[in-house]
Amino acid sequence: MADERTTGQPAQPGNVVVTVLFALLLLAPAVLALAGRAGVDADFIYHTEMRHPFHAPPPTSGALATGGWQRDFERQIADAFPLRRQVIERYDFAKYAWLHDIASNHVIAGADGWIFYRDEEGSYDDGTYDPTDTELAKLADLYKSRADWCARRGVVYVFALVPNKSTVYARFLPPRVRHVTPAAGERLIPLLRARGVRVADLRDALTRASLTGEVYSKGETHWNDAGAYVAYREIVGVLRSAGVRDTIVAKSIRSRLVWSDDADLDRLAGIASLVRNRVVTYEFPHHARRVSAQPYAHDELGDLFLRDAYERDDPHFPKAVVFGDSFTGALRVFLAEDFRRTVVLQHDIRKGIQFDRAAVEAEKPTVVIQELIERSLVYSAEFEP
Predict the structure, then answer these.
(1) Minimal CB count within 10 Å: which of 25, 265, 309, 375?
(2) Is residue 24 part of a domain?
(3) Any residues with CB less than 8 A from the CB of 237 and at least 6 apart, and which?
(4) Which pLDDT score is estimated for 129?
(5) Which residues of 264-288 are buried (b: 16+ CB within 10 A; e: fewer)?
(6) What is the pLDDT of the chain when averaged over all its residues?
């Protein structure tokens, strides 16, 4: 009797379709490359893979002699491979949708669709960043020196520590992530207060608010307008003795939900173009207007900051200079309502300076607000002008 498994049997239609699709997937990039469609998607590589496109060194570097040119050539071709972005995004999405697993090493998948920033928040959650008491005391002295410098000029200084998303939403972290307590921020706050530094510790207020509504977004590292408003109220509360008042009428605020396809964590996870992120936004009557923020004369540090400025027509209001990171993006529109002039100097915490004395001396503000996200404390002691 003939073996029913002989190769003479006709192929099943399903197998033929799979084979054809697989062949097309292999051939399509090659055909596009031959058609001149190869190219590097630098934006995708930078924002999703957190690196710059690879550029092979010149042959004179010795690569030809050592044989490294083959590896360099392969890496350069791989970065310019046609359909590279589409293939990676669909693989990342399929892995997330079917297995609830994140392909990127930069992101942690939590419960109920929440995702977290592994690179920096993870260092607090797993105890990788565990500064000694001496290191934290040195950091407290740094902020104390800024507060004292401001006080000598009649300026009130307040330090506002923004909690990591994983601090506020620790309940959604995966079981394998051990949330270390007390965290560095919790240990730093008492040291600052003992030195007489005004502190707006935002952790408790944001954690309480998170129980009844979203103050951060599931696919974003940053707080939304609801979170920024909670922070604003806390900061203004600390500054009441300096004559700062909350001028935003609470009942005038209208909360809206919008959907974004550009959340930074979704982008890092490779699913931003396929998953939409829910964001809480606040609408309210604005009295402050945005104005040009000109550089200051003889300011050697000015180029290290992104400048923004707001004004409102009331000479009785105080003035403010705000130093901070990207979390000031949502915060500044609230703060601007309480000052006749608000200047925001946004720094890149990893590469730049947090504080600019020349800007304070030029503006002569009533208050200086120093905002900092908790995960960036690891960089704080490295830069002091």
Answers:
(1) 25
(2) no
(3) 200
(4) 77
(5) bbbbbbbbbbebebbbbebebeebb
(6) 82
Q: How many structural domains comprise the chain?
A: 2
Residue 253 binned pLDDT confidence (cut-offs 50, 70, 90) = very high
Residues with Cβ within 8 Å of 56's Cβ and at least 6 positions away in sequence, in order, are: 63, 69, 72, 73, 75, 76
pLDDT of residue 1: 42
In a shared domain, residues 190 and 277: yes
Tens of pLDDT, residues 139-174:
999 999 999 999 999 999 999 999 999 999 999 988
- How far apart, in Å, do the first and last CA atoms of the chain sit? 90
Residue 218 shares a structural domain with residue 316: yes
Q: Are residues 200 and 62 in the same domain?
A: no
- Which pTM does this prediction carry? 0.78
pLDDT-derived band of residue 107, with 50, 70 and 90 as boundaries? Answer: confident
- Residue 1 lies inside a defined structural domain of this protein: no
Domain stop point among 29, 63, 82:
82
pLDDT of 74 above 70: no
* Separation of alpha carbons 291 and 164, rounded Å: 31
Kindly state whether residues 125 and 75 are assigned to the same domain: no
Helix (H) or strand (E) holding 335: helix 328-335
Residues 62 and 195 both lie in one domain: no
Whether residue 208 sits in one domain with residue 73: no
* Number of other residues whose CB lies within 10 A of the CB of residue 242: 16
Distance (Å, whole) CA 57 – CA 68: 10
Give SS3 for 34. helix
The reply to whether omega before 182 is within 30° of 0 (cis) is: yes
Separation between Cα atoms, residue 95 and residue 339, nearest integer Å: 48
Q: What is the extent of the structural domain holding 75? A: 39-82
Tell me how far apart the alpha carbons of residues 216 and 114 are, in angstroms, rounded to a whole number: 10
226 Cβ neighbours under 8 A, 6+ residues apart: 209, 213, 214, 215, 255, 280, 282
Which pLDDT value is given to residue 174? 86
pLDDT digits (tens, 9 = 90+) for 207-223: 999 999 999 999 999 99
Residues 264 and 347 occupy one common structural domain: yes
The answer to the question of residue 339 being in a domain is yes
Helices (H), 36-131: 42-49, 63-66, 68-79, 84-99, 118-125
| 305 in a structural domain | yes
> Do 59 and 162 share a domain, yes or no?
no
